[in-house]
Amino acid sequence: MQCPACRHKESHVLESRSADLGRSVRRRRECLRCQERFTTYERVEVIPLMVLKRNGGRESFSRSKILHGLSRACEKTTVTPKQVRLIVDDLESFLQQRNYREITSKDLGELILDRLAQLSEVAYIRFASVYGQFTSTDDFFAILRLLEKRNEESLQWHQNLSTPGS
Asked: How far is CA 154 from CA 128, 133, 147, in A?
């Protein structure tokens, strides 16, 4: 591993520990030439995922692009940056475990919206407005009705669980 300070190619590992919920290994290293200490992360190399866009194009799955979009949607809400990272981690893990390496942008957006609906209605609507390319107030009313219906179904399900003999 090349030292970021002097570019020397030899270092020794001072400490290793699991990171990212066991998805990577964090290593603390020391350069054998200049004694600079630095951190590296080791991850399993995976086959790249492809996203099929609405316009028919294809692009590589971009963790940072999703992280950025989610962060923007969750600004000034109760959703924490840690929760945003967990959504992206879980999404990426789910996609890697599937047998095929392509997903439509529509399906990707739906997976993200499912998670956001559990955390924040405001973030859900913000993300849906960008992902769904809203063009009018009618689009917002439609997503609000969908969210309201989802909440009613969830409330009904919980009431059925707490009612004896149901």
From this structure: 20, 27, 11
